[in-house]
Amino acid sequence: MRSARLLTGRNLALVGGLMLAAGCQVIPKSDVSTAPPPAPTPEPSATALPTDSGRHRIALLVPMDGDTAAVGQAIANATTMALLDTSADNLRITTYDTSAGVSAAARKAIADGNKLILGPLMADGVPAVQAVARPAGVPVISFSNDTSVAGPDVFVIGHVPEQSVRRSVQYARARGSNRFAALLPEGDYGNRAASALDNALRDFGGALAGRESYARGNTSIVSAAQRLRAVGGYDTVLIADSARLAIQATDELQRDGSARARIL
C-alpha cells in the first residue's frame, strides 16, 4: 500500500491560495469567548470517510446557510477550483457546514479522520473548534482577522488591517504620497484600520488630511466619498474595504474632473 506523502510547501501554498480566493470579503471581528474545556477526542463516526492512505484529509468548516452562507459557498468553491487548477491528487478537502453549530461540525471533521481544519469563518467560533481539535493534535487555520485568537495550533489568514495598511502606506510614501485621507467602515475593523493608519504615518511620515466613516451594507460609502472630496487637500486615499465598495467610492472621488488621487 502506498504510504501517505508528506505535506509539501506546494500543498501549503495551495491551502493559503484557496483561502485567499475569498479574501475580498471583509469579515469584522466578533466578540471572542473563552475557550470551553477540551472535549474528548471523538470516536470515528459510522459515516467516516473511507480509508485513503494516499491523500491528506483536510476539513473545510464554513457556513452553508444563514447570513454568511454566500461567503462560505465562495470559499468552498475556491477550494474546488484550487484543487482542479493544481491537480493536487494527494489532498482530500471535505466541506462541513457550521450553520447548525461550529462544535458539531468540528467533531464530525475529527471523527472523519481529517488532519487539518480550515475555518471557522468568525473568531467567536475558534474556541469551540480548538476544544475539539487540540486533543486530537489537529491544527486550525481560521478565516478570522482577529489575531488575538491565534496560538501555537491556531493560525489566522483573514485580512489583517494592521499589516495591510502599514504596507500600503509604506508603498505610497516611497512613491511620493504626502497627504493621506481615509474612508473607513464603522465598527471594529474600521477602528483598527484608523489606528493602523495613524501608526503608519507616524513611522513613515506623511500627514492625515481627513477621514470619513460610513455604515457597511448600503451606499453610505458614496456619501462619505462626497464629503471627503468636498474637503480635498489629499493626494492619496485609503479605502479600508472590499474591491466592490472601493470602486463605488473611487468613482465618486474622481467625479467631475476632480484631481486623481492615488487609491490604496
Task: Give descriptors for this structure.
264 residues; 5-stranded parallel sheet; 2 domains; Rossmann fold; 4-stranded parallel sheet; 8 helices; 9 strands; single chain
Task: Write structural notes for this entry.
- With 264 residues, this protein is of the alpha/beta class.
- It folds into two domains: 9-156, 3-Layer(aba) Sandwich (Rossmann fold), CATH 3.40.50.2300; 161-263, 3-Layer(aba) Sandwich (Rossmann fold), CATH 3.40.50.2300.
- It contains eight helices and nine strands.
- The protein has helices at residues 9-20, 69-86, 102-111, 126-133, 161-174, 188-204, 220-231, 243-253, and strands at residues 56-62, 91-97, 116-118, 140-142, 154-156, 179-185, 207-214, 236-239, 262-263.
- It has a five-stranded parallel β-sheet, sandwiched between helices. The protein has a four-stranded parallel β-sheet with strand order 7-6-8-9, sandwiched between helices.
- Strand 8 (236-239), helix 8 and strand 9 (262-263) form a beta-alpha-beta unit.
- Helix 1 (9-20) runs antiparallel to helix 2 (69-86) and helix 5 packs parallel to helix 6 (188-204).
- Residues 1-10 and 17-33 have low confidence and may be disordered.
